[in-house]
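To fix ideas, we reproduce below a protein record of this kind.
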Amino acid sequence: MNELIENIEKYLKNKKIETRWEVDHEMREIVQCIVLSELSKTDFFDNNTFQGGTALKLLYGLNRYSRDLDFTLNENNNFSWEKYINVINSNLEKYDISFNYKDESKNNIFRCYIKEDSILKNFAGKNIVPKECTKKNTRKKTEIMLETSFNINSFNSEYKEIMFPNKYSVKVYDIHSLFAGKIHACLTREKTDKITKEKIMTEEGRDWFDLVWYINNKIKPNYDFLYDKINKINVLKEMNLKVDDKLIKELLLERIKKLNYDKINNDIKEITKPEDKIILNENILLEKINQI
């Protein structure tokens, strides 16, 4: 058995996985870490900084699962995922691992999807994961999205180490800049209406779960970064506002009046283990936001 597969086996054994739900989430995290490890061997982090929920989980201890790998370009230049995916696949050939790759970049948002379904075959018959997860006809493909774009680069960053599947470093938003990004997401999350094609406000359970996590951990947002991001909100563009605790509270308290809490709590259930699940409502968020 090769070193990478040995490290994955140790990782899975320590998790004591019993359900397909756990396998799906843990395999996604394994693929995330493999991709980050391989990117760290290239020049990728010279012009990209890791951000988002996966960064918060892998590097700062967030207690929920996350799906995608999100980055920010430090400079607005030409970028292509193909170069990096080709290098990753070349490096992983010796482990008999390869990612199927689909590029969906457009309008200077560089996005691709990768899929993998070969890692789990190495654990067939070892009682490490449920049997139905390792058989060829029942193995699920693990898919993650990778996305980067240039927006605002007034965030602060640092290099932090990840220990799996080996020891490596990535450039990542600091915790205060991540919090600023999450507040912005809570206030501005949109989706495209399938019928009208118009942008409408929406809510994701992960945003409000993370908000509570930041507040419980007494993290302060990077207000300079948040000011730059909030200034791009249409209704605030022309207003000379000071972004501080007071404004953030006002905006968030207004937002929580309009949330679909059934959706939020269903979302949270899908990304948390039973011991980490929380149930949110307006009163709970009101109490938490007043602690900012």
